[in-house]
Every structure is written in C-alpha cells, then in structure tokens.
Amino acid sequence: MNWYPSPVAPQAGRQVLVTGANAGIGFFTSARLASAGAHVTLSGRDPGRLAAAVAAIRGRVPTASVDTLVVDTSSLASVRAGVDRLLDRAPLDVVVLNAGMVHTPSRREESVDGNELVLATNVLGHFALLEGMLPHLAAGARVVTLGSLSMRLSTFRVDDLQLERSYDAWRAYAQSKIAAASIAFELDRRLRRAATDAAEAVGAASVTPRVHSLVAHPGYSISGRTPRVPGVNEPSRADRFLDALQAAGAQGKHRGADVVVHAATADDVEGGQFWGPARLVKGPPVLGTPTATSRDPRIGERVWMLAEQATGRAFDVGAAMGARP
C-alpha cells in the first residue's frame, strides 16, 4: 500500500510538532509532512517506538528532516520539561495534538498529578503544552486538534469532567475528545479576541489572529486497513481479516491522516473550522459541522476554566499573544 495516497504542497522551511507520532494517524501525518520537506518533531512517551518511527520514515525518505521529543502527556512535569526543550528550537508553524489513549482502562485511574488518566492524557497534557508554547508559535501557525466520531455518540457531562461519579471506559474516551474539541474552539475564540483587542489598542482595523486553532477528525481509520510498517503498524493476520470485513465503512490510518495533513497545510483552512472525511467515516477531506456541544461558548469557557484548575496554571491567551496586531 502507498503511504502517501494524495499529494502535499511543498513544506520546506516549516517546523512541525506531532504528538503521539510513533504510530497511527500521528505517524502517517509526520511521514507525509516530512516527505513534503517540513522539519517534523515526533513526540511520544516511548523512546524506542519513536526511534522505530523515525527509522521507518527515513527508510522511505532518506533526506527527511525529523527528530524526536520524549513527552508523556499524562504527566504535567513531563509536558513542561518538553516545552522547555521546544523553546530552545525554532518557532513552530504547525502543532498537531494527536496523542491520546484509545484503549481506555476499564476502571477509573488517575495520573501522577491526580487527574483522571484519560482526561490527563488526551486533554490536559495538550492544554499545558499550548499554555507553554503559544508565545513561541510562528505567525500564521496552526494548532490542529484531533477530533473523533465518538463526539457524536456520547453526551458530555461538564460538571463531571474528571468522571468521579460516572466512569466507564467508553465515556472516558468520548468525553475526552469532546473536551479537547471544546478547548480547540475556545482557543480560536480567544485568539480572535486577542487579535481584535491588539488592533484596537493601536487604532488599526481588526486583523486575522496570528495563530489558528481548528479540529480535524480522521473518520473510522483502523490498523488492519493500514500499510504494514515494522515497529509502527504490525496487525496480525486475524486483525487484517476482521478489519477487511469493515472495508465498506472504514479506511486505513494512512488515509485518515489525509484530513489532518489538509488541516495543517491547505490554503482553504482557517481557525475555528472542523474538517473530516467526505463520507463521515472515510473519504477525502471536507469542511464539516462540529457538534453543538463542542462549539458552545459557554461550555468552552467552563472546560477551559476546569483545565486551568486541573493543570494549576492560568492560560491567558491575550498575554501570550503579546497584545499586538
């Protein structure tokens, strides 16, 4: 199978960070952006798996400009140490927030910081990453948060974000994806307000935000429909057979990455958008409609406040943007 099912515009000179880049959507997003000339930092918590991902990319594209950053998004200390290392590098043009637990615990567990583990891994770690990195993003940078079909299949209990009263494995995953999208859209609103405030401060017309936050979901993308990549994607024959039975409504993760790569690179993309496959579960990227819950400003503000409390830091977007148009 071809890793690169659709072309990508040249990305030479662009700096990209992809979290959870050692497998799945994150790996194929990294591989495709690196093949187009971007410098890609692959982030994950396992150095060995990151090394295997880098070797696989360089095996296909020997000239690929890639490096790694070991970060465990379930640990705020690990995230902040990663931010410190990133601040010594060139400003980022693209941040793809992909890392997350899909196979969630059957019982509620907590992170080293005392937060519900799935929320910590899928949401709070990325929130802390953005809080530290936002001033270091390049003008015109994009923050692409990974959405999920699960957002349409679950209710959202903002008053029980930590699932202390109602934990189950499915809810933990679905609620974390709704929370992540809610934060992404709230970030877009705050970036727009910061741009307007900065313009008004100097008597200028309203301007486009310096950073764009949006959501992309990869449809129903599964391992058995994905090319075999040693050390990265190695489904068993049984898994391939079972996944082949779902071919009509599923695609490989290399094709799911199409939507994420489009959100990261295409000219027709802007902050606040929601991109997904044309046929919901598969197909080429199209502009879609997010769930009402994830777009609700009142919920977004509440989730943002709860994320600040859980991470122990205020996230002032206006201050991070430096009050400039």
Computed Rg? 19 Å
Average per-residue pLDDT, rounded, comes to 92
Q: What shape does the CA trace take?
A: globular
CATH superfamily: NAD(P)-binding Rossmann-like Domain
- The secondary-structure element order is EHEHEHEHEHEEHEHEEHHH
InterPro entries: NAD(P)-bd_dom_sf (IPR036291), SDR_fam (IPR002347)
Family: Belongs to the short-chain dehydrogenases/reductases (SDR) family.
Keywords: Oxidoreductase
Pfam families: adh_short
Characterization of this structure:
This protein has 325 residues and is α/β, with parallel strands linked by helices. The protein has a single domain (15-313), classed as Rossmann fold (3-Layer(aba) Sandwich), CATH 3.40.50.720. 40% of the residues lie in helices and 15% in strands. The protein contains ten helices and ten strands. The chain has an eight-stranded mixed β-sheet with strand order 3-2-1-4-5-6-9-10, with helices on both faces. Strands 7-8 form a two-stranded parallel sheet. A hairpin with a 7-residue loop joins strand 9 and strand 10 (285-287). The longest helix has 33 residues, at 169-201. The radius of gyration is 19 Å and the shape is globular. It starts with 14 loop residues before the first strand and ends in a 5-residue tail after the last helix. The relative contact order is 0.15. The mean pLDDT is 92.
